[in-house]
Design goal:
Blueprint: H1 3-6, H2 19-25, H3 38-41, E1 53-57, H4 62-69, E2 74-79, H5 83-95, H6 119-126, H7 133-143, E3 149-151, H8 154-160, E4 166-169, H9 176-185, E5 189-193, H10 200-213, E6 217-220, H11 227-237, E7 244-251, H12 278-290, H13 301-305, H14 331-340, H15 342-347, E8 355-360, E9 372-378, E10 387-392, E11 413-419, E12 423-427, E13 433-435, H16 437-443, H17 458-467, H18 476-495, E14 499-502, E15 507-508
Parallel strand pairs: 1-2, 1-4, 2-3, 4-5, 5-6, 7-10
Antiparallel strand pairs: 7-11, 8-9, 8-14, 9-10, 11-12, 12-13, 14-15
């Protein structure tokens, strides 16, 4: 567990430095800093720590979400290898209109909740709509879009634009580490979308780089900052279900989100006489997808590939569908593991596993399988017992626990802790609950042991920590261990082998060949 998770509060002090010095150095200090109120400085003078200059790399998906979350700051640059996508997003933001008839968030309605919502949740409900995102977006479109710089290559951006304080990295997974590492080398604070990186080696590299540079780092697994998710951790810490030795974690992805289990587009062999067995059907599908697809105007395909091997452009890869392809993404485990495996890792202080075994539907090596299960074994930790964690995706699920009394687990995803004295269930966006319902209602809410993130805003938690006003939620020293655990499941899949893992030496001990899947060979011209 990281030091940030151990701290309940931070000390305060006062600093009077320039804005640039402040955002570069303040967050590396042990304590949080008090910000000089603007009114103390006089009308029209902006305190140096009031805003952070942010660059966003990758704007097509979560990058846009992250950017909108920090529009109260100064977004000074946006970089994307696809300028058509970048320009389209800016145009969309410029046209944004407030929808008519907004309603406040619905009150919690859960048959397992017989006690009131927390003070923080009630306060969040009461403040609606204290910070109108449409006002913020329209102000951004008017004031910032006309002056922000646009780039295709993050290296050019870091080299030319010296006013950047912090960088959001929301590219495909394979480029996370190299962009974040270069940004930290340049003294920039970094926010990196989940999964933190593409390989185990990269996870170790980023954790070490963050510790060396002392910049503020955050992985973009937003659920880590939510009250309900932290309450689930608090149930475990309170011993509500006793000793925990088994955990089940599942998601229905990739179903309905991106394709997996498909072959790479490829022309059929001349005069091929194909039948209709599985292999022949895969070849027919590859040939049907091949086509002649020119690279769209504005897309620099070489920059998209970056560290990964050379592959011809195809619309089945970009945008977004890259997640299911081994070259660039980490499939469902990389996508949802950061949200779901996170909480057992945190609550049970799991550290790194010693045994990992992944089984799957057929795997062609190009795209991840339609469905997988991964079994992780974690050793005893002090007085805590060994834990087995089972991961399921693609529609595979654990059995419905009898404590649901005829109910069914949510197929969309969740976490089921099996304790000596009971079970704890976290599903989707529902609050955590003890099973059965009678136990939940008689137990009541657990004691609040963990600090709460103001307004549950993960991106602004990063910004406010840069300013010295908050404590970071999910820094790289924690996120790298979570990510390494997830990616060890991918390594077991690709090696087609059960792995015995020596975490201290980052080495598979029972299958030397499997160690190649802990890292990658970067394409010529690219290095970490």
């Amino acid at each position: 567990m990281s030091e940030q998770h151990k701290r309940e509060e931070a000390n305060t002090t006062v600093s009077g430095v320039s804005r640039r010095e402040f955002v570069t150095t303040v967050a590396g200090a042990a304590g949080a800093f008090m910000i000089v109120p603007r009114h103390v400085l006089g009308r029209g003078f902006q305190a140096p720590s009031d805003t952070v200059n942010i660059a966003v790399v990758g704007i097509g998906g979560m990058g846009a979400v992250n950017a909108q979350a920090v529009m109260s700051q100064n977004i000074t640059a946006i970089c994307d290898c696809d300028l058509g996508l970048l320009d389209g997003k800016l145009a969309q933001w410029s046209r944004a209109q407030r929808p008519s008839g907004r309603q406040p968030p619905p009150a919690a309605a859960n048959p397992f909740t017989a006690w009131p919502r927390s003070k923080a949740q009630l306060a969040a409900d009461a403040r609606w709509p204290a910070d109108d995102p449409y006002d913020r977006l329209q102000k951004f479109a008017k004031d910032q879009i006309p002056r922000l710089k646009k780039y295709q290559d993050y290296r050019e951006m870091l080299d030319k634009q010296k006013d950047i304080d912090a960088v959001i990295v929301a590219t495909p997974d394979h480029m996370h580490a190299i962009i974040a590492s270069a940004s930290m080398d340049a003294g920039k604070h970094v926010y990196v979308q989940k999964p933190l990186c593409w390989s185990v080696h990269e996870a170790r590299h980023l954790a070490k780089k963050a510790a060396t540079t002392k910049v503020v780092t955050q992985m973009g697994n937003q659920r880590h900052s939510l009250d309900d998710e932290r309450r689930g951790v608090e149930y475990i810490l309170a011993g509500a279900i006793g000793e925990v030795r088994d955990v089940h974690v599942w998601t229905n992805r990739p179903w309905g989100f991106w394709p997996q289990g498909i072959p790479r587009p490829a022309a059929a062999a001349p005069n091929a006489q194909l039948g209709w067995d599985d292999r022949a059907v895969a070849q027919r599908l590859a040939a049907a997808m091949k086509g002649d697809y020119p690279v769209p105007a504005g897309l620099n395909w070489d920059l998209f590939l970056g560290v990964a091997p050379m592959v011809e452009y195809h619309p089945v890869y970009h945008p977004f569908n890259w997640r299911g392809w081994v070259d660039w993404g980490q499939g469902a485990l990389g996508d949802m593991g950061a949200h779901l495996i996170d909480f057992p890792m945190w609550a049970l202080k799991l550290g790194l596993p010693t045994v990992i075994e992944t089984e799957s539907t057929p795997f062609n090596g190009a795209t991840y399988p339609d469905a997988t299960t991964t079994r992780y074994e974690f050793p005893k930790r002090g007085n805590l017992p060994p834990v087995t964690l089972a991961w399921y995706d693609g529609g595979l699920m654990p059995s419905d626990p009898p404590e649901l009394e005829g109910g069914k687990l949510n197929p969309g995803g969740g976490i089921l802790y099996v304790g000596k004295k009971g079970k704890l269930l976290q599903e989707g966006s529902a609050p955590p609950r003890l099973l059965p319902a009678s136990r939940h209602n008689s137990y009541g809410p657990p004691k609040e042991r963990l600090t709460r993130v103001p307004h549950e805003e993960h991106e602004m938690n990063w910004i406010n920590t840069i300013k010295g006003k908050d404590q970071i939620s999910c820094p790289f020293d924690y996120a790298s261990t979570l990510t390494e655990t997830m990616l060890l499941g991918i390594a077991s899949l690709r090696a087609n082998s059960k792995l015995y893992y020596d975490a201290a030496n980052m080495r598979v001990t029972n299958n030397a060949a499997a160690n190649q899947f802990l890292t990658r060979e970067y394409r010529q011209g690219w290095s970490l």
